[in-house]
TrEMBL record:
This is Epoxide hydrolase 1-like. Gene3D superfamilies: alpha/beta hydrolase. Keywords: Hydrolase. Pfam families: Abhydrolase_1. Belongs to the AB hydrolase superfamily. Epoxide hydrolase family. It comes from Coffea arabica. It comes from the Eukaryota. The gene is LOC113718252.
Length: 317
């Protein structure tokens, strides 16, 4: 880990913190919520040892990167703009792209908006969701899953932050990272995101107290607002990406998901995949991997397997 280098790069009006290691063809890793560049530590070490240059930013709003306060500064156009600016700053024309969770969502947008910068994509957990011109995403989620659905609960600025603040930050991190409950994730206000403080959270073998403390230290400093703003910009994304309605993802793709992942077990997702919708919208989908007994934070839970899956795919290009 001490061989991973850190620096800040000015892009798109903000400073982005990046971690990087290795030389060779570049792989850009995009993390999710509530995560950091650190989520990719295993893959960075593994793939840099195989001759690749691994680059993992703290995305806008996270860790040691700048965090503008307004949700309107967290649209897909901002995030993809940050990443294009990062590639330009590093002198990289095209990269391999790897995403998970919100990083996967932004990876889909990156491939939709700037496929010319991507050699191939390995995406995890979140399938591509084509824009529905007739209905905003939050309206659709509320109608389907109710007001207790976690994305709906994240919408009111300050509300989730206040709830998180009543719980130890490390507990919030543990609660999210160790969750193995198949979706959709609904959290009534009376239950809260931290659950009962009297119920200890047992850490799995793949997550150490040191790992939790690293995440918790950064979120204690930065707060959760930056990460939550991605959820709060969903309807704005819908408005801004209207010109790209109906466009397919036209880069080579490998998709990996755990069979216990809440995003995979959310109603409608398996049907979308099995009935051909996913392949229709992502026509260059070359490999689809379902990992058995694996939940959402797949790149941390099964680091060696995920690193091998990434390597097996990108070495073809």
């Amino acid at each position: 880990m001490d061989k991973i280098q850190h620096r800040k790069v000015p892009v798109n009006g903000i400073n982005l913190h990046i971690a990087e290691i290795g030389d060779g063809p570049a792989i850009l890793f995009l993390h999710g919520f509530p995560e950091l560049w650190y989520s990719w530590r295993h893959q960075m070490l593994s793939l840099s040892a195989k001759g690749y240059r691994a680059i993992a930013p703290d995305l806008r709003g996270y860790g040691d990167s700048d965090a503008p306060p307004s949700p309107s500064n967290y649209t897909a156009l901002h995030i993809v703009g940050d990443l294009v600016g990062l590639l330009d700053s590093l002198g990289l024309d095209r990269v391999f792209l790897v995403g998970h969770d919100w990083g996967a969502v932004m990876a889909w947008y990156f491939c939709l908006l700037r496929p010319d910068r991507i050699k191939a994509l390995v995406n995890m957990s979140v399938v591509f969701t084509p824009r529905n011109p007739k209905r905003k995403p939050l309206e659709a989620m509320r109608a389907r899953f109710g007001d207790d659905y976690y994305i709906c609960r994240f919408q009111e600025p300050g509300e989730a932050e206040e709830e998180f603040a009543r719980v130890d930050t490390a507990r919030i991190i543990k609660k999210f990272l160790t969750s193995r409950r198949p979706g959709p994730l609904c959290v009534p206000k009376e239950v809260g995101f931290g659950g009962s403080p009297h119920n200890p959270i047992q850490l799995p073998s793949w997550l150490s107290e040191d790992d939790v403390n690293y995440f918790a230290s950064k979120f204690s400093q930065k707060g959760f607002t930056g990460g939550l703003n991605y959820y709060r910009a969903m309807d704005l994304n819908w408005e801004l990406t209207a010109p790209w309605t109906g466009l397919q993802i036209k880069v080579p793709v490998k998709f990996i998901v755990g069979d216990l992942d809440a995003t995979f077990t959310t109603p409608g997702v398996k049907e979308y995949i099995q009935k051909g919708g996913f392949k229709r919208d992502v026509p260059f989908l070359q490999e689809f991997v379902i990992m058995e007994g694996v939940a959402h934070f797949i790149n941390q839970e099964k680091p060696e397997e995920v690193s091998a899956h990434i390597y097996d795919f990108i070495q073809k290009f």
